[in-house]
């Protein structure tokens, strides 16, 4: 007997042609362009299958074995499997580490940690946003305006990179931390091209009596593949998103220490506070389709193929960076240890906004990014360029050399138009309207990008 409402059985194409078409357009945009946003990736077909599965139908507030609603016997197994794989992916012993896989994404994960372990107005120190840090590490702008809730609800004093080298200034951090006495120091960032000195962070945290949290969102794939230093050795808490270099669904995780702290002889006492902060303090029902999909990604993250992928991500970022440097361009810190480079355009007399705008016209996607010392946060002086997404499409070093060539030509065109039309953004943009060089280069970029496969769909499947 079929009494199901008819639209439940219809394919999307006939149920909602408008949305179907938009999805086709987005697939076409993704496959036809060069995707260089450092935090993005192209996830796999099995991850997408789990995301679009029946797991999305179920409410399961609580934790495996202790739910508020019935019918969770399968969801309990899904979440437990995800937790087990999360610990295994980072080689963690469940006696020493636990994990909560319910955060909807990275920002909620960070907020849950602060809610769990801090009191309102406790002090935190994270890397400043213009130094490459993230909003949720306590960001307020140079006028003191509290931009992130993490600076509204907690007292934040950011630490910074050394303006000459672009590397984190650990000595200054230590000096500031000894004065400020934060309850938590946060490491990790969104636009930092170098690895993290966790031993030094730990030393500073111990000196001023702070907890140490790493937000490894950008590099969680690199940490899983042991291609970056391991935060777990030194940190109390590690948070992450799961859709960046880890190449999973959009989601978040919080890893927390368990058991007795050897230094203090006391129980860490993080687990129940963090679990309670995720739910019921901040979130409602877990997104089980995300958790199921994350389990799929975490299984793959333990394979030799994933390690090969991550090594290639690093090699590609390095090839891109070295090519830009060989052309005389200025990268913050002079290069990269990870998956991204930060290109300082100020010596050229260009802004990140102009480069991002032109690249969009060329079907190259990257983002304007603050570089340390920028006069205005509204007009950042650099662009951030990442390798994870295009590496998922099979690109290797020589392809990233070609991408650097495209970017260099884009910078030249920005400058040429600046010369002919002036620096004012609206005049400068006019110089790109119907510019034949833009059209010709866009064709080249699209021909280049379209030659590579996508992980979860084919060119032929695009139906519009
Ligand atoms: N939006 C992410 C990034 O681009 O780094 C961070 O949340």
From TrEMBL:
<dbReference type="GO" id="GO:0035999">
    <property type="term" value="P:tetrahydrofolate interconversion"/>
</dbReference>
<dbReference type="GO" id="GO:0005739">
    <property type="term" value="C:mitochondrion"/>
</dbReference>
<keyword id="KW-0554">One-carbon metabolism</keyword>
<dbReference type="InterPro" id="IPR015421">
    <property type="entry name" value="PyrdxlP-dep_Trfase_major"/>
</dbReference>
<keyword id="KW-0663">Pyridoxal phosphate</keyword>
<dbReference type="GO" id="GO:0019264">
    <property type="term" value="P:glycine biosynthetic process from serine"/>
</dbReference>
<dbReference type="GO" id="GO:0030170">
    <property type="term" value="F:pyridoxal phosphate binding"/>
</dbReference>
<feature type="domain" description="Serine hydroxymethyltransferase-like">
    <location>
        <begin position="12"/>
        <end position="406"/>
    </location>
</feature>
<comment type="pathway">
    <text>One-carbon metabolism; tetrahydrofolate interconversion.</text>
</comment>
<dbReference type="InterPro" id="IPR015424">
    <property type="entry name" value="PyrdxlP-dep_Trfase"/>
</dbReference>
<keyword id="KW-0808">Transferase</keyword>
<dbReference type="InterPro" id="IPR001085">
    <property type="entry name" value="Ser_HO-MeTrfase"/>
</dbReference>
<comment type="function">
    <text>Interconversion of serine and glycine.</text>
</comment>
<dbReference type="InterPro" id="IPR015422">
    <property type="entry name" value="PyrdxlP-dep_Trfase_small"/>
</dbReference>
<dbReference type="InterPro" id="IPR019798">
    <property type="entry name" value="Ser_HO-MeTrfase_PLP_BS"/>
</dbReference>
<comment type="similarity">
    <text>Belongs to the SHMT family.</text>
</comment>
<dbReference type="Pfam" id="PF00464">
    <property type="entry name" value="SHMT"/>
</dbReference>
<dbReference type="GO" id="GO:0004372">
    <property type="term" value="F:glycine hydroxymethyltransferase activity"/>
</dbReference>
<feature type="modified residue" description="N6-(pyridoxal phosphate)lysine">
    <location>
        <position position="244"/>
    </location>
</feature>
<protein>
    <recommendedName>
        <fullName>Serine hydroxymethyltransferase</fullName>
        <ecNumber>2.1.2.1</ecNumber>
    </recommendedName>
</protein>
<dbReference type="InterPro" id="IPR039429">
    <property type="entry name" value="SHMT-like_dom"/>
</dbReference>
<dbReference type="InterPro" id="IPR049943">
    <property type="entry name" value="Ser_HO-MeTrfase-like"/>
</dbReference>
């Amino acid at each position: 007997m079929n009494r199901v409402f008819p639209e439940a059985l219809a394919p999307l194409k006939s149920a909602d042609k408008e949305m179907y078409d938009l999805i086709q357009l987005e697939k076409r945009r993704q496959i036809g362009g060069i995707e260089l946003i450092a935090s993005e990736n192209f996830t796999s077909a099995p991850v997408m299958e789990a995301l679009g599965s029946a797991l999305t139908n179920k409410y399961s507030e609580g934790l495996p074995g202790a739910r508020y609603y019935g019918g969770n016997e399968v969801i309990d197994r899904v979440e437990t499997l995800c937790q087990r794989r999360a610990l295994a992916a980072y080689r963690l012993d469940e006696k020493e580490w636990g994990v909560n896989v319910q955060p909807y994404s990275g920002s909620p994960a960070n907020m849950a940690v602060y809610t769990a372990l801090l009191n309102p107005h406790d002090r935190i120190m994270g890397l400043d946003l213009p130094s490459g840090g993230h909003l949720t590490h306590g960001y307020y702008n140079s006028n003191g305006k509290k931009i992130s809730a993490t600076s509204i609800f907690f007292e934040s004093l950011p630490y910074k990179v050394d303006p000459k080298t672009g590397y984190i200034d650990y000595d200054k951090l230590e000096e500031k931390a000894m004065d400020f006495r934060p309850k938590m120091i946060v490491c990790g960032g969104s636009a930092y091209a170098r690895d993290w000195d966790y031993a030094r962070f730990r030393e500073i945290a111990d000196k001023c009596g702070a907890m140490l949290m790493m937000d490894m969102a950008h590099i969680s794939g690199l940490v899983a593949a042991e291609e970056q230093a391991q935060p777990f050795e030194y940190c109390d808490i590690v948070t992450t998103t799961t859709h960046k270099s880890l190449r999973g669904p959009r989601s978040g995780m919080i890893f927390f220490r368990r058991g007795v702290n050897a230094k203090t002889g006391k129980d860490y006492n993080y687990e129940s506070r963090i679990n309670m902060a995720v739910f019921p303090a901040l979130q409602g029902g877990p997104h089980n389709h995300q958790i199921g999909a994350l389990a799929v990604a975490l299984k793959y993250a333990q394979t030799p193929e994933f390690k090969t992928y991550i090594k290639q991500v690093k090699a590609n970022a390095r090839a891109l960076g070295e090519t830009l440097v060989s052309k005389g361009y200025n990268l913050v810190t002079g290069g990269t240890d990870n998956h991204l480079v930060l290109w300082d355009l100020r010596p050229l007399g260009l802004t990140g906004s102009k480069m991002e705008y032109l690249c969009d016209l060329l079907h190259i996607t990257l983002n304007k990014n603050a570089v340390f010392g920028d006069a205005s946060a509204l007009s950042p002086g650099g662009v951030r360029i990442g390798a994870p997404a295009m590496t998922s499409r099979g690109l290797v070093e020589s392809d990233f050399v070609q991408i650097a060539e495209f970017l260099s030509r884009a910078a030249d065109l920005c400058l040429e138009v600046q010369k002919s039309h002036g620096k004012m953004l609206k005049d400068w943009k006019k110089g790109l309207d119907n510019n034949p060089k833009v059209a010709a280069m866009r064709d080249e970029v699209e021909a280049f990008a379209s030659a590579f496969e996508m992980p979860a769909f084919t060119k032929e499947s695009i139906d519009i």
